[in-house]
Amino acid sequence: MWGFIVFYGLDWVATVPPTVALCRQHFGLEDSGIVFGWCFASHMVGAGVGASFAGWVRTTQGSYDHAWLFAAALCFAAAVGALLIPRRGRYSEEQTPVAAAAG
To answer: What is the helix (H) or strand (E) element at residue 81, kind and residue range?
Structure first.
């Protein structure tokens, strides 16, 4: 159990700094806090809806099987969507939106 607790804790916290960095990189210093707030809020709303949906599936179907399959399909769709995002060339340090905003 301790191994799971440590791994899960490190995994959960490890997503926050890259998300903040991406918000700053793409939306600049002034707007990144608001954008990160909306990302975090939508994440929490999605978690609540997902948990409620899984509970409803468990109540009506007697097991979580369909909820797991639905979640797996959503994960697959998200992975495909992420892979379809066109890649841009890397910015040099002076070309980043953060450096331009800091100015």
So the answer is: helix 65-83
